[in-house]
Amino acid sequence: MMSKTTRVAVVQAGSSLFDTPKTLERMRAHCQTLKQQGVELAVFPEAYIGGYPKGLDFGARIGTRTAEGREQFLQYWKSAIKIDGPEIRMIGSLAADASCYLMVGVIERDGGTLYCSTLFFGPDGALLSKHRKLMPTASERLVWGMGDGSTLPVVDTPIGKVGSAICWENYMPNLRQSLYSKGVNIWCAPTVDERDIWQASMRHIAYEGRTFVLSACQYLTRGDAPDAYECIQGNDPGTELIRGGSVIVSPLGEIIAGPVYGQEAILTADIDLDDAIRGKYDLDVAGHYARPDIFTLQVNEEARQPVQTTGTATNTVIGAPSSQNIQKAIDEHEQA
After folding, report:
1. Which one of the listed residues 133, 140, 161, 217 is annotated catalytic?
2. 3-state secondary structure of 34
3. Among this protein's residues, is 302 annotated catalytic?
4. What is the rounded distance in angstroms from the CA atom of residue 268 to the CA atom of residue 36?
5. 6-62 confidence digits (pLDDT tens)
6. Within a 10 A sphere around the Cβ of 276, how many other Cβ atoms?
């Protein structure tokens, strides 16, 4: 019996830094191409909506911050999106118009804190899940908060079990094992890591987890940033800030699309999810190869709130006399 195949894609594209409306319009054009190509699931890069401010230091040195750096952070914060904001509805409409599942890297704004997140939309436009990056890398910690265990979903869809790990999260063995244990068979890896070694990592994860790996990397140039951007790489508009390297890998670690460098591109592949089961015949790291009699992993998936309250606060001013108490005091005084 012939297995059903699913057409998947990774979108190698850059943001318009600090201009989220323009980025969304660029995303609309890519989604039109996905629709034309009959793609059923597509992955956009890390920090695609909101931007990856490569090369900026936000005026930070150990023990000091600058006023200019605070202004840069404010500009970056304003480029980020809220989960209940209009940008979410727009991305949902793009998914619905393309009749496609979309995994999108975003910079999420929650109060005064930013998170590097992935959002997963269904072909009806519904937001199905959110994952916040657990461990920002190096200077990313200046501008991004850390996610907790409450956003580690693997979503069971008609086309497969879909999960995501963002950039260097893919180097966290315990995170990988937690997703393997949930049966992920389409592993989405949005990234800005353009290095050659990234390819080895994607092939390793595919082979280790016997899962399809869809890695979308940004292709970003100096021309994608505003004129005032303090670009340490130079000011030629064609200078590459992130050179790409998007790739699709099979459950046996074989590259089936890409990698592509030096341009925006959409890579597609027709995948057979039964290949994930074929691969687990001799290696299932969350099953017969796990050895739980020796190794165990505990995952805390509780949301961690910095403030927890009990009861209900009221607007009553403590100690404020009522009009009845005031009149009673007057009467008592007159009687005395």
Report:
1. 133
2. helix
3. no
4. 12
5. 999 999 999 999 999 999 999 999 999 999 999 999 999 999 999 999 999 999 999
6. 25
- CA atoms of 303 and 38, how far apart (whole Å): 37
Residue 317 in this model has a pLDDT that exceeds 60: no
- Choosing from 31, 100, 116, 167, which is the catalytic residue? 167
pLDDT of residue 206 exceeding 90: yes
Percent of the chain with pLDDT over 90: 84
Query: Is 22 annotated in the active site?
Result: no
CA 222/CA 118 separation, integer angstroms: 24
pLDDT band of 232, cuts 50, 70, 90: confident
Measure the CA–CA gap between 22 and 33, rounded to whole angstroms. 17
Catalytic annotation present for 100: no
Cis (ω within 30 of 0) for the bond into 53?
A: no
CA dist., res. 59 & res. 77, Å (int): 15
DSSP sequence for 268-334: EEEE-THHHHHHHTT--TTTTT--TTT-----------S----S----PPTTPPPHHHHHHHHHHHH
Catalytic residue among 31, 40, 46, 188: 46
First CA to last CA distance, the chain: 102
Q: Residue 90: CB partners within 8 Å, gap ≥ 6?
A: 24
Whole-number pLDDT of residue 312: 79
Give the list of residues 6+ apart from residue 192 with CB closer than 8 angstroms, or none: 45, 46, 47, 52, 54, 167, 217, 218, 220, 242
The 3-state DSSP class for residue 100 equals coil
